[in-house]
Amino acid sequence: MFNRRIYLDYASLTPIDKRVMKEMKKYSSSAYANASSWYKEGVAAKKALNEARKKVAGYIHANSADEIIFTSGGTEANNMAILGSIEWLHEQGVEYEAMHVLISAIEHSSVRECANHLNDKGVQIDTVNVKSNGIVDLDDLRKKILPNTAMVSIMAVNNEIGSIQPIREIAKIIRQSRAKNLQAKAGVTSIFNFQSEIKYPLFHTDAAQGLLLDLNVEQLGVDFLTLDGSKVYGPRGIGALYHRHHIPLAPIIYGGGQENGLRSGTENIAGIMGFAKALELVHANRYRENARLASLRAYFVSELKLINKDITVNGDLETSSTHIANISIPGIDSEFFVLQLDARGIACSTKSSCLRDESESFVLKAIGANSKTSIRFSFGRNTKISQIKKTIRVIGELLRAK
């Protein structure tokens, strides 16, 4: 029954690729041993784990496989990068009140809630404004980086409007701020002086929605990068954090000391192997898939405008990922319209599924768009032109019936 429906909510969750399922089954039913065990099967599981780590590191051009920490998903990876960095500084004697953290106004809720949690402890939190196209205002970023800024976290691709942030430019601004801080330290006591080899602020990017980008961590200039298996046709409950060597972190989960002591718990070998396979498949078809989705999205938007010329795109198609189109349709109630589409066999969303309890999207509010009339359509590997045409036809029928 589900196969007859049209699924246009890939930004929320991607289906697991059959080739990924096959890989996971192998490590669930036969090669299933605990990687911490010393017997033959455990050694084999450890070998598989190490190979998967190397593959993931290779896909994002990390210098070492040890820079990859497997997590339960993107939310945990974001928490690990932000909370782990601040908690390590606190353990070194830096007061919470002395530290400053900077995030963008449109970050995922897992980053926003980390910031709120730190704010409750006394950490100063600021948000960087975004322009109407959803791109970070770089001038505002420059102004808001302070000498005591410990962390800047700005997502690579927004999950609601698809805006692609200029991560390299942001990294350059952060490097410039580090240089200014070093120059200013002559005769001045810095809260980071005890850790002279680490340059602050650190830079984290949530790249869970960046499956179609070239995520080269060395070229991007990031210290931390988040990945999520559920956004790349991989298993749920698995993700990874790229963690640049020599950047100190305090663990946020304690136990057996797995993942270099940073993420305790028996490794999910089946999930990790499936995740590595999913990234391999995404990497192999990225350019072709980008072009295909760009064509589908352009057709979708142009046809909608023929139905009603006042239909607009929230954000900017030129500066957003090809798999997301956030559309404002004048005169509708977005929640009721999504239910009407659902009744006609089309699945889409009004906002991020992580904002279930919020009355409106803070992302759309930040760019000056109207949540009440906006719907997010997100496309993926199984999206066909015939499905797009049917969706357009149904939207037209619903609008004419108003």
Top keywords for this entry?
Aspartate Aminotransferase, domain 1; seven-stranded mixed sheet; single chain; alpha/beta
Give a structural overview:
By secondary structure, this protein is of the alpha/beta class. The chain has two domains: about 1-15 and about 285-400, Aspartate Aminotransferase, domain 1, CATH 3.90.1150; about 20-280, Type I PLP-dependent aspartate aminotransferase-like (Major domain) (Aspartate Aminotransferase, domain 2). The chain has helices at about 20-30, 40-60, 75-90, 110-120, 140-145, 165-185, 215-220, 270-305, 335-345, 360-365, 385-400, and strands spanning about 5, 70, 100-105, 125-130, 150-155, 200-205, 225-230, 240-245, 310-315, 325-330, 345, 375-380. Strands 2-8-7-6-5-3-4 form a seven-stranded mixed β-sheet, with helices on both faces. The two termini are about 30 Å apart.
Main sheet summary: 7 strands, mixed
Please, what is the average pLDDT?
Answer: 94
Q: Give the low-confidence spans.
A: none
- What characteristic shape results from the CA principal axes? globular
Supply the number of structural domains. 2
Concise account of the structure shown:
The chain is an alpha/beta fold and 402 residues long. The protein has two domains: 2-15 and 287-400, Aspartate Aminotransferase, domain 1, CATH 3.90.1150; 18-280, Type I PLP-dependent aspartate aminotransferase-like (Major domain) (Aspartate Aminotransferase, domain 2, 3-Layer(aba) Sandwich).
Mind sketching the topology for me?
Layout: E1 6-7, H1 18-29, H2 40-59, E2 68-71, H3 74-91, E3 100-104, H4 109-121, E4 124-128, H5 138-144, E5 149-153, H6 167-184, E6 202-206, H7 217-220, E7 224-228, E8 239-243, H8 269-307, E9 312-313, E10 324-328, H9 334-343, E11 346-347, H10 362-366, E12 374-378, H11 385-400
